[in-house]
Specification:
The chain contains eight helices and no strands. With 243 residues, the chain is mostly helical. The chain folds into two domains: 89 residues, no CATH class; 129 residues, no CATH class. Helix 1 packs parallel to helix 4 and helix 4 runs antiparallel to helix 5. The chain starts with a helix and ends with a helix. The relative contact order is 0.10.
Length: 243
């Protein structure tokens, strides 16, 4: 059931991912094809299946539809399903669904438009702090938000534009959801993932030494891993270091 809910939520996240960076309203007008603006029918709105059924093209103008649409729907469905399997009917699950949705949105707005919208991060920060009363505790959440946001602010100041304002606010949101000590893991894992990616791009000569890479997706991926598997990651680390 949570897989199905994830499919439907994912299809709404797609609308947000497309419209927010363009400054369009998320609720109006009805969903339409980005190429020919033809309003979508109910069949076009069925997650994943409509994409397969139409063979990845718009039914009205045959323009190719971005693979991001079925990808986001399927991803959200899998993440929602795994959260419920881990945490069942708890506030933790509710927090996880909200956290996952915002991470999916910022990952793809950052990849496609280089933007992590305030419209998402500000309400998410409030939600994270409120939900922490029932999950990790308000103090851990508040201090986590302050430290991770603060660390990224310092990185941004030192690197002079190497890290954007959106990353700093996303850092605060992640801190509010994972708290301390989870933020330390998020910092290490996201830096590792981002570093490996930057190295791969440098070696393949896709980027120069001075170009900035998008850090949001790595931050989001690390945050989700830590939120979901913090205990497992810590025990794995201890296992390797106990000889
Ligand atoms: Zn079209």
């Amino acid at each position: 059931m949570f897989f199905l809910i994830g499919l439907i939520v994912g299809s709404f996240l797609n609308v947000i991912i497309y419209r927010l960076p363009r400054g369009e309203s998320v609720v109006r007008p009805r969903s339409h094809c980005p190429a020919c603006e033809h309003p979508l029918s109910l069949i076009d709105l069925i997650p994943v299946l409509s994409y397969l059924f139409r063979r990845g093209r718009c039914a009205y103008c045959s323009e190719p539809i971005s693979l991001r649409y079925p990808l986001v729907e399927l991803l959200t469905a899998i993440l929602f399903g795994s959260i419920y399997m881990c945490f069942g009917w708890t506030v933790h699950t509710l927090a996880g669904l909200i956290f996952t949705s915002l991470l999916v949105i910022v990952t793809f707005t950052d990849i496609e438009a280089g933007i992590i919208p305030d419209f998402i991060t500000y309400p998410a920060l409030v939600a994270g702090l409120i939900l922490s009363w029932f999950t990790i505790g308000f103090q851990d959440s508040f201090v986590g938000a302050l430290i991770l946001g603060g660390v990224f602010l310092i990185v941004a100041l030192i690197s002079r534009g190497g890290m954007g304002g959106g990353d700093i606010k996303l850092g605060a949101v992640i801190g509010a959801f994972v708290g301390i000590p989870g933020i330390l893991l998020v910092f290490v894992i996201s830096s590792l993932l981002g570093g490996i990616w930057a190295l791969a791009l440098l070696i393949s000569r896709k980027v120069g030494r001075k170009s900035a890479i998008k850090f949001g997706p790595f931050l989001a991926l690390a945050a989700w891993m830590v939120w979901m598997y913090e205990e497992e990651i810590v025990s794995l680390y201890l296992l390797f270091h106990s000889g």
